Predict the structure.
Amino acid sequence: GQNIDQPTEMTATEGAIVQINCTYQTSGFNGLFWYQQHAGEAPTFLSYNVLDGLEEKGRFSSFLSRSKGYSYLLLKELQMKDSASYLCAVRDKYGGKLIFGQGTELSVKP
Amino acid sequence: DAGITQSPRYKITETGRQVTLMCHQTWSHSYMFWYRQDLGHGLRLIYYSAAADITDKGEVPDGYVVSRSKTENFPLTLESATRSQTSVYFCASSDRTNTGELFFGEGSRLTVL
């Protein structure tokens, strides 16, 4: 089975940096995804890690350590529009299904 | 337009009725998925399909039926709806090239009275 843990809520200030952690325990692993979901909307893809290390994409970076079962999403220069839910998801060993964590609700305050 | 579409977007039904949520994608993606999203539970996988005529259970399959006779369609049926199936349902698709990221439909909000 798979177990994915993320903090339920986080609050940060506009212009600051925030790190959202995700830990996972899986029987197999074939990649970790981060998605962003604004209230009332569908999730949208942010990042993908399959090898250890940091992937950077503009203001967003994602890190993976497979040996520790750990990932984080780093958001820099926070903007009000970054207020959303951030979902960590792990793809199983056979490359099929994607299992999501409960999501982290991020509130960005002025 | 190309993409993934769900219908209906909103549905109110009564306990015991059969409901079918439709999902259609125009990318010819091999994988398709159904998730439900409830407060406090995040996205939970109901069923997924790797190709036409191949389906498999996810985390919460009880009370749901799927079929995939054509690559582009993946309907989800609640054979006898219960109040606990009140939720927002998301369909998604992916291929296995590049990252294999999921592309989501806009969601179907189902209320069972």
About this structure: The two ends of chain B are 34 Å apart (CA to CA). Residues 54 and 68 of chain B are 7 Å apart (CA to CA). The mean pLDDT of chain B is 93. Chain B touches chain A through 26 residues (CB under 8 Å).
